[in-house]
Amino acid sequence: MVENCIFCKINARKIPAAVVAENDQVFVIKDINPKAPLHYLIIPKKHVVDMQSLQADELPLIAEMSAMAQQLSKTDAAHHDFRIVINNGHAAGQRVFHLHMHYLAGNILPE
Question: What pLDDT does 14 receive?
Fold first, then answer.
């Protein structure tokens, strides 16, 4: 756990959050500033700063995150279509420097 990371604190249950799903590798929370009717964050439990920081042995985390997105899409037929976004770096919109995917669904999103 990185002491000043909000996602690490949520994972350690030091900060409350609406946890939607969880397994041994990742957890899912509702985004507090949603950009779509359904906006979740899929977060690895292991602290990795961003995509560029992933080491070769950590690449399976992306597969775990993707599998969780598939699982989320199967829970409600209305949200079968979804968009995944990973921001990498401040200039690209990353504000929490712990790797995470934005899972967006619930309406037709602009391209």
Answer: 96
